[in-house]
Amino acid sequence: MTAPNPVTIDPPVERSLGRRVASWLYSRPRTQLRLLLAWPLGWMTAAYFGSLLILLLGAFWTKDSLTGKVIPFSWSLDAFGNLFGAEVYRTVAFRTIGIAVLVTLTAALLAFPIAYYMARIASPRTRRLLVVAVVMPLWAAYLVKIFAWRTILQGNGVLEWVLSPFGFESSGLVELVNSWLVLTYLWLPYMILPVFAGLERIPNSLLEASADLGGRAGVTFRRVVLPLVFPALVAGSIFTFSLSLGDYIVPDLVSDTKFIGNIIYDNSTLGNVPLAAAYALLPIVVVIGYLLVARRLGAFESL
Amino acid sequence: MKTFRITALLAGIGLLAAACGTSVPSGALTELGDGEGELNLVIWVGYAERGEVDPGYDWVTPFEDETGCMVSTTNMNSSAEGVQLLRSGEYDGGSFSGNASVPLMLAGDVAPVNTDLLSNYANVFAGLKDKTHNSLDGVAYGVPHGRGPNVLMWNTEEVTPAPTSWDIIWEDAGDYAGKISIFGVSDFIADAALHLMVKNPDLGITNPYQLNQEQFDAAIALLEEQKSHGVIYWSDAFDQITTFASGDAVVGTSWQFQANTLAGGDPPEPIEATVPAEGSTGWSDTWMIAKNAAHPNCMYLWMNHMMSAEANGQATVWFGEAPTSQAACDYAEGLSPGHCEQTHATDEAYYDKIWYWATPRADCGDEDAATTCKDQDAWLAAWAALTGS
Is the previous residue joined to A231 through a cis bond, with omega within 30 degrees of 0? Predict the structure, then answer.
């Protein structure tokens, strides 16, 4: 409105560099934003994608058979040849993906009633207590929980003590079923929380409308609740599936079977880095595929 | 200025002497200085005790007090893992068996050792020096730590009569199905080959680490047969101790260390171990210094320390392996009477039956160009296929 009086211009003062940069930036909000984001994004790119890239490059390198030393930039497809040539890597891949799917389904089945009760039936006080109860296991260290399960499952353990009166004997820490059990336990909260949030968002009026139109409980569940909560289930399954797919400590500690992660770990500690890197591509591809499907199903809006 | 020139001259003469002297290999330390205050080691479990399990066994604290080199250690679960750990560049050295020491020497990851700087080296049994697993072209790349066999371990309450043969984990594996504990690394293929050497001489196995296709296939078939009886593979020594303590395993292949820990535990477990008549695989370990060790003086001090009567006596009794010198034997006598007789410290004939861990090589490790063998990669791949499926 009223421009400053041009007559009383201050004498030009020597401004510091910082001030000059600040005033230059002041009129350029987009540059400000870019500079602000450059640091975290640059760090993420260098530290995360950079290390991933080096890992993947390693898949195309060879190693000296006698000394076991990897020769950088010695391009070859040997690692992939070895990978496709051996039955075992397919077996392990199917086993891992199978268990990840199984864990996801089990977690969904277990999580749904709990989340439903928390979201729609429990009083606010009980709900708060239940949320704390669901989140509580996440406060304990992952390894501690696995070792707790070891004491349950191992010979002369809690499970055997409970079951022995009925004539059962513990199979010890060998069976694959142990991995399924422990992984389901570990990742259950990650399924409950999104489903709980998804159920909470369904307005009561929709359920009432369904009832008014003659929909019984089963129909309402199938045609109203499930479609509305499905994206939340998919969102939860991203966690349970990808966490199970990448786990290698649980199968090693409770079931003496190999998952994809164990093969990668074994080969990297034993020096066959090219094979480990080549095999690491598999879970990356699987998870990217899973995420693309999940996005189509609307899971990202429910996170 | 004049003093400087004289010093330079003396240093030059010193360098010349070092270069010409037959005893100092190139690349080795020529002069021992003060410790750098820190030492990072890759070790086999139980090779650096500081009295935390049993106050009577502590050879790290006296070393730290004397030299000021603070020791930190990382356990390896297998030789191949030890090689990778050393190559990470974060360690000054470690204790390596033959299947790690040879690849490390050949790849140049470890430096030659100037044994003149190690006052205790003279005491070491001559039979342990200048071997293929600790020297290259007559140049020492490390100092001996101890040697011993892989043992057959069993629970005396569950397994009767006491086994005297490896058959119990092979042909008779069905007797203790699901309760057999097996060393879970590819080196174990050699144990199968050793068994075939005795049971199936027609295969013509002369060295369990150098196997041609037919011999290798037979060994893998034997391992698959064994696996079908339900075996528990172990790679971490404490993991195996837990399995035996809980009763999940009652018989298996082990090291004397686990047997000692279980039998000497609280409460003591009914565990015994033996070397069956057929002989066994085993190890002869070497302390080696990394080529680019950050704390070379501390590493030399440690190597010398580990050849002293006190440290070597304690360490070898603790692990259950043979000491490397008469002085260590005499010291060990006070800790465990008869230790050197039991571990056959000087009995070379006994160790002829023990096949030290070695690296499988495509050229079979011999001069004969006509023979080809399965190399380390083939062993690792076969092992992954065996245990993964």
Answer: no
